[in-house]
């Protein structure tokens, strides 16, 4: 054992050759990164890899027994083929070795092992060509068994039933057992791993120490070893995450905020008195919470989530009015110009002419010309405008506020903590924060994605909402329904309504644009806005229909003009990308047709659907797809078509994908920092970790008595800040 630790480089422990191979395969450079490469499963007797469901074309590692071996001479060229048939007890697979006759000495019927290679197909049968392998039983054991295959099988089964074999996510160049050998060498060389959790805390939680956990998860002697290790590591992930969020919340409370008390005869009361409808119970409860927290001397930190159409904008606007009554300003940060523009129009419409003239809302985006920008910035810095709505231009150094009292961040998941706080630093004191998301979030996700924020949920829909009917249409199997879709659109238009047609790409020839463009789509999309709009204009039955186009590639002025025309009824059918996903509000639009619906995510489809049925007439949403029933694409589309409950869909969506990077702003599964913890399955662990963190920080808010935990949190938050900047 050396003095190497978790922060040591792999080169110093494994040597340059092996370290470079691991870095090429996974990007790992340190001992800690390699030791956090968790086994995806463990092989043992009776639980071998199902050979009946191998993915064609993918690299796999299987655990199986050899049934028989055949050697034959190739007919077309010189050399031999060794064909090995293996089984897991249910399915069969062929292993094919070309010109490697020496392997016949190792590959003997009855032996078990791990085999890795790319799944190919030959004459209707799945096979691995020239796979890498590691046999569980040695040649000496084979000889000692005297050819008694059953005795050998029983001996091997007994040995390996007691000692599980970890199977790792692997690559063609670095198979699972090679990873296991590298990890074993690292564990042999490094010193005992220091645990940031005190022994008393470990006993209180009931988990093994970090050294035992890491060794147990990679080199278990029994199933109990790796189960205990996994539980320990899961709890550590949950605890570290909740502790980081807890520290962020403590830091926020340490900031001084200007209290914004409610004026019982002020702007909010005037606004409520002019509302043409009654607020829902959820909206009233949310308002009471915000009223109390805006009057505190430390900042409010709230996440407002709600169903599509639940009235989040009204709730947020009421908080803005309370701040404006104390001469404070609100900045509403939106991720796109289309959404910012929609918020601006909605706020002005809700306020009415009198309050709009008094509060002077302004819209600040990057597309304003120099003159407009200067005029807008002057209104902001002078305090003349009490409500400022904009995109990332709000964060610019050129944007300064007179008295920023509240920051509202819409579509919170599109912004990192650093971006959010850069805007908050523009206040005289630390502004109150209200984050909003239109995507319903399961409670465990809320705790692990937005743990530093208190959650307010709107589930009630305002009275008078007539609902949306949704249907999935399988294009190949239901051609008559596809024809009916366009007839139905014409009927809506004939009745004075309007229709959205959503496409996955801007132009099928370009594939939708760059990755930075929110309208970007995969090159294989067959429904592009340009093509669909052109085809509709050529149809004989659409000759009297006005067709418009909206994509993210249009200039801000062009987007605004299209939306104004659509809102005014000058456009009958708007063919668009997902640029209309959130915030767009045209009450007269009653029908939506989503083409190639399987190319969209569950939350996207749910949000898109929410653009219709916002007025006095029922909405209709039709999801067209070529995805076959039983495939993941069809399951997503069918799930959205079968329920309008966003919280139920959020649970379904979470089951289909990984949680994404939780501390940073990257929400897709590819960057998840959670190695073992799964927010859908490990709710009890997450809740327990949250309770422990709350108790710990109540006793030691600055972690002064727990320096190792303080260092751990500092490292986590620093890593998260770096991810925010990517």
Structure description:
This protein is of the alpha/beta class and 726 residues long. It has 5 domains: 1-36 and 177-191, no CATH class; 41-167, Nucleic acid-binding proteins (OB fold (Dihydrolipoamide Acetyltransferase, E2P)); 194-251 and 683-726, no CATH class; 267-458, P-loop containing nucleotide triphosphate hydrolases (Rossmann fold), CATH 3.40.50; 468-644, P-loop containing nucleotide triphosphate hydrolases (Rossmann fold, 3-Layer(aba) Sandwich), CATH 3.40.50. The chain is built from 24 helices and 21 strands. The strands form 4 sheets. Strands 11-12-10-13-14-9-15 form a 7-stranded parallel sheet, with helices on both faces. It has a 6-stranded parallel sheet with strand order 16-21-20-17-19-18, sandwiched between helices. The relative contact order is 0.09. Mean pLDDT is 84; it is low at 511-523, 660-672 and 722-726.
Question: What's a quick, concise take on this entry?
Answer:
The chain has about 725 residues and is an alpha/beta fold. It is about 40% helix and about 15% strand. The longest helix has about 30 residues, at about 225-255.
């Amino acid at each position: 054992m050396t003095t190497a630790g978790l922060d040591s480089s792999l080169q110093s422990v494994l040597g340059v050759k092996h370290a470079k191979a691991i870095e090429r395969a996974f990007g790992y450079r340190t001992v800690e990164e390699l030791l956090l490469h968790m086994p995806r499963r463990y092989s043992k007797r009776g639980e071998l890899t199902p050979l009946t469901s191998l993915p064609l074309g993918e690299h796999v590692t299987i655990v199986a027994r050899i049934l028989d071996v055949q050697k034959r001479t190739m007919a077309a060229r010189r050399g031999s083929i060794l064909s090995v048939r293996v089984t897991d007890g249910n399915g069969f697979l062929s292993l094919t070795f070309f010109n490697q006759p020496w392997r016949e000495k190792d590959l003997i019927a009855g032996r078990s092992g791990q085999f890795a290679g790319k799944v190919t197909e030959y004459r209707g049968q799945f096979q691995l060509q020239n796979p890498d392998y590691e046999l569980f039983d040695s040649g000496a054991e084979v000889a000692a068994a005297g050819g008694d295959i059953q005795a050998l099988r029983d001996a091997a089964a007994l040995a390996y039933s007691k000692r599980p074999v970890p199977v790792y996510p692997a690559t063609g160049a670095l198979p699972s057992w090679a990873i296991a050998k590298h990890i074993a060498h690292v564990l042999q060389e490094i010193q005992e791993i220091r645990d940031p959790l005190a022994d008393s805390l470990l006993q209180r939680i009931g988990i093994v120490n970090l050294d035992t956990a890491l060794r147990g998860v990679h080199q278990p002697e029994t199933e109990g070893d790796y189960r205990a290790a996994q539980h320990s590591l899961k709890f550590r992930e949950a605890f570290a995450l909740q502790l980081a969020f807890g520290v962020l919340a403590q830091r926020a409370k340490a900031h001084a905020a200007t209290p914004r008390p409610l004026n019982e005869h002020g702007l909010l009361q005037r606004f409520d008195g002019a509302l043409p409808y009654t607020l829902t119970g959820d909206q009233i409860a949310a308002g009471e919470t915000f009223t109390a927290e805006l009057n505190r001397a430390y900042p409010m930190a709230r996440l407002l989530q709600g169903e599509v159409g639940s009235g989040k904008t009204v709730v947020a606007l009421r908080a803005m009015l309370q701040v404006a009554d104390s001469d404070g300003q609100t900045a509403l940060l939106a991720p796109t110009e289309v959404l910012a523009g929609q918020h601006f129009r909605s706020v002005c419409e809700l306020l009415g002419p009198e309050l709009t003239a008094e509060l002077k809302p302004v819209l600040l985006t990057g597309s304003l010309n120099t003159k407009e920008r200067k005029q807008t910035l002057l209104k902001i810095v002078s305090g003349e405008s009490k409500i400022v709505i904009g995109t990332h231009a709000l964060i610019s150094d050129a944007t300064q506020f007179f008295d920023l009292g509240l920051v509202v961040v819409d579509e919170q998941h599109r912004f990192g903590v650093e971006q959010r706080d850069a805007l908050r630093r523009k206040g005289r004191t630390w502004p109150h924060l209200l984050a909003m998301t239109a995507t319903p979030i399961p409670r465990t996700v809320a705790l692990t994605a937005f743990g530093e924020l208190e959650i307010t949920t709107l589930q009630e829909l305002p009275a008078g909402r007539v609902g949306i009917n949704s249907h999935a249409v399988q294009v190949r199997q239901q051609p008559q329904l596809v024809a009916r879709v366009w007839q139905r659109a014409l009927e809506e238009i004939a009745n004075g309504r309007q229709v959205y047609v959503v496409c996955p790409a801007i132009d099928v020839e370009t594939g939708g644009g760059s990755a930075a463009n929110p309208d970007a789509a995969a090159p294989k999309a067959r429904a592009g806005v340009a093509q669909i709009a052109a085809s509709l204009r050529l149809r004989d039955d659409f000759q009297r229909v006005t067709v418009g186009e909206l994509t993210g590639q249009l200039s801000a002025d062009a987007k605004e003009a299209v939306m104004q025309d659509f809102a005014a009824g000058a456009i009958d059918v708007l063919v668009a990308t997902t640029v209309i996903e959130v915030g767009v509000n045209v009450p007269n639009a009653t029908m939506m047709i989503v083409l190639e619906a399987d190319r969209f995510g569950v939350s996207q489809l749910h949000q898109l659907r929410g653009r219709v049925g916002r007025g006095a007439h029922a909405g209709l949403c039709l999801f067209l797809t070529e995805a076959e029933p039983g495939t993941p694409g069809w399951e997503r589309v069918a799930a959205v078509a079968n329920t309008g409950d966003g919280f139920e869909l959020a649970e379904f969506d979470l089951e289909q994908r990984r949680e994404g990077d939780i501390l940073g702003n990257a929400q897709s599964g590819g960057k998840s920092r959670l190695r073992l913890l799964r927010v859908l399955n490990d709710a009890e662990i997450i809740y327990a970790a949250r309770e422990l963190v709350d108790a710990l920080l109540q006793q030691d808010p600055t972690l002064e008595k727990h320096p190792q935990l303080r260092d751990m949190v500092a490292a986590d938050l620093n890593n998260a800040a770096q991810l925010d900047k990517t």
